[in-house]
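Consider this today:
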Amino acid sequence: MAIIKFTNGLLCDEGHLRAGDLYVDTYTGKIIVPQSQETVDKTIDLMGLILAPGFIDIQINGCFGFNYTDYQSDWSYEQGYDECMKKLLTTGTTSVCPTIVTSTPKNYSKILPKLKHRRETSRTESLGSHCEGPIISTKKKGCHNVNNLKRPRSKKEFYDVYGGKQNLKNIKIITAAPELDGKLDIIPEIVANDVVYAVGHTEAKFETALKAVDQGATMLTHTFNAMPQPHHRDPGPIGLLGLSDSSKAPFYGLISDGIHVDPTYIKLAYDVNKDKLCLVTDATFAMGLPDGDYVWENAVQSKRGAVLKLKGTDTIAGSVATLAYCMRNAMKWCNIPLAEAVKCVTNNPARSVGFENTKGFLKVDHDADLVILDHNGFVQKVYKLGNEVAGSNNHFTPLKSHL
């Protein structure tokens, strides 16, 4: 056991910066109450830098050459998963909801048990998977495989989609389209199993989206993408952001990579309800890889800087941004201080998936998942359960250590 004291810096939490010290017990991996200097085993001088909670990404499809939905064998999946999660940790993202896009019951049965929540000391940990589909709108399916979309007619069929009800314990978020027949009725039971119901890949009108909220839906998936755009007589699901009862308004994911959503919309959404904004990457396997051409799912994809396209076309093939990059974009586009942007990648996502008592805050008894940032929001160091790991402050190149 070792007691670590972080000092001579600024603590960033709940939208504010303040001077102060933070104490960590590396045996429990928890933030602890202040200790006397005699009990401190190691003092870390922050030298004026900023200490913040580790970042939480509730929608990420893969990174560093690995796709969470791709299953070939137990061995290859576990090897690829381990490698990508160790590298992802260095970017400052300490917890994620690994996102499985529309797949088959057989695939869900193989993958979901591997993504159940478990505390991790040396790699980014899963808080439970985000199942994006397959119960989504055909017209708003995006890149999801239309052949795997489902229309379950009963509760049993609904659970069978994900390989059986026993798999709910491995799922943290289900994204579905509430306008599909009978899908509103299943929401209370999903929520009762500690799973977040998110409205997404949907054609729902505002009235239907509001009914979903009344039934227990508490999230919008990648807001503005794969859903109706606001109309002056029917704002659609996006209208939920502006509910007069802000406590009823859902949390909402927003991809701030500069590709998926115009910066003006990022600012507009932030100004409407900043306390429910969860910045997400929606990153693909290509995040963290060098620029180049990659064969993926029988297509050639070209990565150039922040952009991933199908080679020879202008078709966007996904995101390659880190959460730190998305956070810095939000600072710039919303004209907000770093502390407010940090809230959107720590406090808000922790609350959105029910982990606010253990993750995402600089509070006593919370996991000591920490990042040291410079004043521009670049990651300098990362700590997982109090243990130091390498940090990377460059989202476009392969892994680099900046100690």
Remarks:
- The first helix runs from residue 74 to 89.
